[in-house]
Amino acid sequence: MIMLAGIGLTSFAPPSYRMARLKYSGGGDWYGSRTALSNLAGYCNRQAGMNFYPDEAIVEPGSSELFNYPFLFATGHGNIVFSEQEAENLRAYLIGGGFLHICDNYGFDTYIRREMKKVFPELEFTELPPSHEVFHQQYDFPNGLPKIHEHDGKRPQAFGLIYEGRLVCFYDYETDLGNGWEDAGTYPDDSPASREKALQMGVNLVRYALMN
Known about the structure:
Elements: E1 20-22, H1 36-48, E2 57-59, E3 72-76, H2 84-95, E4 100-104, H3 109-119, E5 126-127, E6 157-163, E7 166-173, H4 177-181, H5 192-211
Parallel strand pairs: 1-2, 1-3, 3-4, 4-7
Antiparallel strand pairs: 5-6, 6-7
Helix pairs in contact: 1-5, 2-3
């Protein structure tokens, strides 16, 4: 199962964790924000004393390998489809201690809401208030989710699926944290300050995933 020991290991310890990207079916670009996870992993290691491998894993939702990774990232612009077996496996992963961060890279909202309903038919995405603990981990975001990348001029929103009191899925909408994690210059309109906020929010998400 997911091993959560090792937070705060000294710098000479071998890496303990690897972040994972969800490779889903349906035709959407699951591979978007290509440099996001490697940059987030490096930032977590430098700024928060974590111990991630620099490269990401790629895992399918129906694979038993899913349970090896404490932090799972899904992004895209288009369609996503889970089979019944994939939905059941993803549910078991999240109930068992895993954490899923969904990033709407633009145009993902309709599809991801539909498919996550297969995973948790009894749950609804609820907007997380600024007081939620995920915004107050290593870094404090008193106003909640920061605005990083502009899509349609809407305010940033953070949605969550909460199972038995634990946030198991965090969904960022109209801010695109993943774009903020990418290499500097990938999106010229994203300022260094906004990229720093994106990475800091990423640290908060990872800390929450490891500690809850």
